[in-house]
Design brief:
This protein folds into 2 domains: 184 residues, Rossmann fold (3-Layer(aba) Sandwich); 173 residues, Glycogen Phosphorylase B (Rossmann fold). 45% of the residues lie in helices and 16% in strands. The mean pLDDT is 90.
Length: 365
Amino acid sequence: MNTLLCIAGGGTGGHVMPALALADAVRSKLSDVNVTFIGAVRGLESSLLPERGEQVMLLDMHAVQGAGLMQKLRVLLWELPKSVLKIRKAWRKQKPTVLVGVGGYASVAGVVAAVLSGVPVVLYEQNAIPGLVNRVLYRFCRTMMLGFASAQARLPQAAKKAVVTGNVIRHDVLQVTYQTHEPPCLLIVGGSQGAMFLNETVPMACKNLAKQGKVFRVIHLVGAGDGRVQDVQSIYKHAGIDADVQHYSDDMPSLFSQASLMIARAGAMTTCEAAAVGMPSLFVPLPWAADNHQYYNALSMKEAGAASIIQQKTCDVARLTREISNVLFRPERLKHMSDAGKAAGITDAAERQVAVLKPMLEAQT
């Protein structure tokens, strides 16, 4: 019987994409391991994983964090037990050799089912602040893989279990060599859904810089939404700025290779890719992210000397204008930030994660 790795969790791209990266890393280095997934009907995984041809069990569960009392009771007393039973029933023919929980509410059902079934559990925390699910479940795991070293201090009781692996960076991103450009190029990334705050403030800050006689290029990813490209492009055009405005791009290596400075939210993968590439960054963390984890992701880069942070509540057009000007047009500062990012980045996360899982996978064969 083949060795089986099950990855449970998801909900958002911040959980789903690292899960896929982990699966790809295991498949590339341990060819005899089959990988399956457990996710939620309402999560991104419900569409993305089937499109990739992945085998996924979808659970009808709702989120708990931020929910009202009635929804919490419904999840804990009905949806969770029902989901655990569904998983264990599906495992009657073959239990997984190891289960990895990547966070998100579907991870809870997977981990509970694994514990009840005697399946070893590994948790994978992508952010600098461990999420609610992983904070609750860490005591049941054998190992917790951390995307950021700073997360270890947030789990003092799990210090002996925690292993800093970093987050897996795509191979094509790792091939990018950062360089400054003349004129410099500003890259704005709001994630797959975009960031309305960045869409509204950054173009106006760039307009101010153009009025000051600054010459630069812009690449701006505005996210999905009717009219966003046209509205943002219009501001740049009237300011006389050379701007490439797109909804979304799946070719980040190309964008990184053109950029001198990135303005972005601070999701785990965004910050880790910036470090790996050596991309100087100005982070505006999503203020309502769970446990303010984006701020702490960005803080790890700031403390390394690779980034600056502006809290959204204090980020207006005038301040953003000053912050961009203080970095984008100073090649020596860009180089210093780039070197600091590369020094802090973890580029062998795939090898580290497989090294954690391999002994457990092989012990069951």
